[in-house]
Amino acid sequence: MATYTIIIKEDRDRRFALDAVRRARFGMQVKISKPKRTPEQNTLLHACITDISKQVVWPRPPRNDGELQSVEWWKRRCTLAWLKENKDNAEIVEGLEEDGTFGILLPHTSDLDIPQCASMIEWVFAFGAQNGVVFTEKKPDIGPEPPPPNPEDYR
User: What's this model's pTM, rounded to 2 decimal places?
Assistant: First the structure.
């Protein structure tokens, strides 16, 4: 059986999903979740972080003699700063070695849902603006979270 991802936008989508569940063999799994970030959000977030990586020297001199950091470097630091500003916690884990090492586990930006990604994009735009970044992508309307489904629809 093929793998399906069905985004429920109207009753027809719900009927299609129910039919797919009815036809599924035993042992298959069904997952219902909030949608992850949109492709447009992904493109915009990475374009903005790329602009920051090409224009902002960090850490600031004298700790840095003008070296620019990679996109991945910036993505990790922006994610951590965004989490901190939103009073969300990054996970701090102890290493498996017995030498007292630890690390910080950040969520992957690909795991952000639509409202979380919108919030992070806003944070990245604000950080860039505060640091003189000229963005190559225009800031679109990335939208609020859609309203939750009506529980009555599931009865």
Answer: 0.70
